[in-house]
Amino acid sequence: MLKSLMIATDLSERSEKALQRAAALAKRFDCPWSVLYVVDDEQPAALVEQEQIQVKLLLEARLVELATAGGSAPAIRVEKGDPDQKIVACALQDEADLLVVGAHRKSVLRDIFVGTTVERVVRAGELPVLMVNQPVGGEYRDLLLALDISPASAHAVRIAEQLGLLGGAVCRGIYAFSPLAKGMMQYSGISEERIDEFVGSETRQAVDELKAFLRDQQLEPLIDEQLVAVGLPGNVLERMVAKHRPDLLVMGTRGMGGIKRALIGSVADYALRELDCDILVVPPKADE
């Protein structure tokens, strides 16, 4: 079960949703929690010090409210430094099992060139990160588990279970596959009937692959519904989120090496940027 968590806030409305979710999790699991604010130190020292004082006063003024919401008062940490690096360092220092963050502000050009704080924290690959998009409407009861037939995706499911997030929830495992030969067959003038037969055969093979994967990884008891869908992973996840409206999407990162590893990373980036559900992103084991 979840033993400790940290919420990194920038005091925005987006972070407020994350703060409320962190409080709900702390109360549910009766665990210690902390609230972190990082002052960017790339500004005059006097401004850094002033911001630290003001933020600490603001957060301490909410301690009674936060203690009620979380079942216990959180530790308040106001640090200075590079936000991305400091957030990860503080979470590790506090031995947090989970880092909770708010959704990032949409800014296409900035995101393309430098990425977002959320994505950079996730890429650090140190601990599970829960990005909160939605207001708290209760416990997580409907989960979508992204599976790519890799050890990393199996590890993500196990971590979600260890954190206690699968308990009492309906868990759907989704495996996306793309029959690459389908496009070539279409351009080669092959009949739609033959193409449909090919896709059907590929789908049956994908179903068998998913079943074998879940069996080999001993994940079958954790999955209530096994789903296989044709399409690129990001597109499939978008369709499944729109269809099932899960409370939480669970996914691993960097499940494979080389070009495939970059592809898996891009799927996680896409999900963090585009999907509007809460997302738990779990880095792979150090040896994967």
UniProtKB/TrEMBL annotation:
CDD domains attached to this UniProt entry: USP-like (cd00293)
Annotated keywords: ATP-binding, Nucleotide-binding
Alphabetized InterPro entries for the sequence: Rossmann-like_a/b/a_fold, Universal_stress_UspA, UspA
Family matches, as Pfam families: Usp
Domain UspA, chain residue ranges per copy: 1-132, 140-283
Family as reported in the entry's similarity comment: Belongs to the universal stress protein A family.
Protein name as it appears in the record: Nucleotide-binding universal stress protein, UspA family
Lineage: Bacteria, Pseudomonadati, Pseudomonadota, Gammaproteobacteria, Pseudomonadales
